[in-house]
Task: structure prediction
Amino acid sequence: MILMRELMLIMPSKKSLLTNLIYLVYGVIFFMISGAVSCSAETSGSSEADVGGPSFDCKKASTKIEKAICGNDRLSELDYSLSRVYKKARENNVGVKSDQRKWLAKRNKCQGQEIASCLEMLYLQRINVLSLVADNQALISVPVGWKDFSHSKWVSVLGLSSRCSVNENIKHIRFVNLTTINSENNLLTVACELGAYQDSHLVFNLSINENSVMAKEIVVRELYFDNGWKHKVADKVTGYISLDNNEFVITRRYVGAWTCGYVAKYSLNDLLKGEVLYPLSAKADNDCDNGIRRDEWPVVDIID
Result:
């Protein structure tokens, strides 16, 4: 009897159990409401970032570049847009990461009164590059019989109808050209615009194994002259495309007499890895009236 009495003292009464249960229910409800408010605040913050950016917390901005971005609505939007397209591009191209580091180093050199215009130009250029990588670098499965495909068949298989003029069943190398790189890779060029001196192409690497062939578009930064030789992403590669000593080569002439234009070389290894191709070296001449022909074009500095 004494033991039972002691146990009754230790055990909570029905009333206390009910009270504790009520407190517990209220506590759970309060916690859920608090969590919902917190979640809502986070969602609202994320929504605002979607509209105005940037991709980082401006409260933690410490460098001049970060502060300039946070203080400019246009730059904030561009920073957020770039972060989104960069994420998508990385899914298709692992080489984008190292390329992005180079771009950030270049971006961080913007300074002075022109910092905003400098940043805007670089952001727009980088978004253009990453958009091409994100949209055009997805692997495309190529059907059996690809070695005999006509121009119109390649345009259909690769989904190029919005970017390429279709030339029916033409198989001439001017329209479709296959070049063997090695036993596992072929270089494919599909002409999209025919020119007087050279054509404009879309270029692909065809990866070959026993069971399938996969196509991946190659993104190239072409040369152009603007107070010096510079490079930019090409929507289509214009000129003659060739392979020479483990290098991808673009030869472009501006006039028929070959008195101006450029010969630019790129890394074939970068091409095989699916990275954006940057010119490694070039011989060029922008003066079409000086009579200097291709074989005598000087080696030029390329401005990043």
About this structure: Residues 63-136 form one domain. DSSP finds eight helices and 13 strands in the chain.
